Structure formats: structure tokens, C-alpha cells
Amino acid sequence: MDTQERSWAFDQPVSSPFARPEGLLGRLAGVIMRRTNRRDQQEVLGLLDIRPGQDVLEVGYGPGALVRLLAERTRAARILGVDPSGEMRAAAAKLNRAAVAAGRVDLRTGTAADTGLPDQSADVVVSVNNVAIWPDLNAGLRELHRVLRPGGTLLIAWHGGAGATRLARSLRLPEDKLTHLNDALATTFTQATRHRLSTLDAFTATR
Ligand SMILES: C[S@@+](CC[C@H](N)C(=O)[O-])C[C@H]1O[C@@H](n2cnc3c(N)ncnc32)[C@H](O)[C@@H]1O
Predict the structure, then answer these.
(1) CA of 151 to the centre of ligand 1 (A)
(2) Collapsed DSSP state (helix, strand, coil) of residue 168
(3) Where do the domains of the chain lie?
(4) By the 8 A CB rule, do 142 and 115 touch?
(5) Cβ < 6 Å from ligand 1: which residues?
(6) Which residues form the Methyltransferase type domain (predicted)?
(7) Residue owning the nearest CA to atom 4 of ligand 1
(8) Overall fold of domain 23-206
(9) Could you identify the atom of ligand 1 that is nearest to the CA of residue 88?
């Protein structure tokens, strides 16, 4: 992945090991993320309404904590994941070893703008603490629209919300970027809705 790629939200190259987990530092960032983003994963699970037999895709799964919650706490048929980092793929596969071996969890290399998945392959697409590091917001949204089935749900969340933690407060997006994200969602999807969680600003939309 191009380390000079700029974020659409911050308009600067994305180089932190949390956004580009590579090598030893990247593995360490994965361990830290698993710990610090725990509440985020719980909040997202509470907002998602996953019905038995549905296929779920997580974009930017990092160390795989939400994948594990989805596997353990829902009756989704299949949990697919894409993330560009080989280090995160290895960490998430280790955390979800049994579900990967059983074929219920499928962790792949890919990005929001290029998932490598067939058209209409998921009922629910979820992406947490990921959207602000995409280089091209509209390219990502177009791709996630393509892989969602008609009537399917997209949930995108980023640090912020009511700012219940220092991390959430320090990484929140400015209001104009949140408005831009909501407007972009409303252009590509229907029923774009903003949710203020305790540590996340979240958006849901329907294909
Ligand atoms: C800050 S971590 C968040 C991980 C996890 N979702 C969480 O909340 O703990 C960001 C993750 O996004 C991945 N990533 C970076 N660029 C991406 C892109 N363009 N599309 C999808 N994932 C990306 C990184 O490899 C990393 O695993």
C-alpha cells in the first residue's frame, strides 16, 4: 500500500502504525487497538441488527475483535473481512482461529475501495475506526454499495460521539467532515442516519 496516500478527512499522508499496521510496530499497534477500541466494538454490535443467516462484511477489521464478537454473539451465516495489512490478517486469524477453521469467518486482503468481492455478496457491511483513513471516500462508498445486497445495511463509525474517552475526544472528526460523510452517504444510499454513541460517531444507510 502507498504510504504517501492522503486521507480524504485529514488531507495528510496516513502513516501511523494504527492506520498502516506493518512490521513489529504494526503488530504492537494491533495489540493496543484490541484493548483501546473494545468499547467501540460493543457499541457497534449494539447498533447492528444482524438476522440469522445473514452475510456480514467488516472493512478494516484490524486485530479482529469485532469479527470475534460477530462470530460469538450473532447467528450470521458468514463473516467476511477485508483489510490491507498482512499483520492484521495474521492477528485476526489467530484471534478467530476456530471460526476461520470452520469456514464461518473468511479474512481477506483488500481495501474499502477494492474489496475483491463479487457484486451483492453481503447483507450488512460494517467499518469501524476506518473511514477517515480512506484515501477516497466516494470510491469506498461506491464499492461498498456494489457489494451490498439490495435492502442491505451499511454502518460506518469513527472515534468521537459523546466523547466518553480521551481517545474518542482526541480523534473525533470536525463537524464539516461529519456533514460531508453524511451527505456522501445520502447521495449513494438511502436512509442515511447519524448516531451519536458514547465513543463513536456512527452512520447507518440502506442500499
Ligand atoms: C485504526 S485500525 C481499526 C481497526 C478496527 N476496526 C478497530 O476498530 O479496532 C485501522 C485498520 O484499517 C486498515 N486500513 C487501512 N487503510 C484501509 C483502507 N483503505 N481500506 C480498508 N482498511 C484499511 C488498517 O490496516 C487497520 O487494520
Answers:
(1) 25
(2) helix
(3) 23-206
(4) no
(5) 18-19, 21, 33, 37, 40, 59-62, 83-85, 88, 111-112, 128-130, 133-134
(6) 57-156
(7) 62
(8) Rossmann fold (3.40.50)
(9) 27
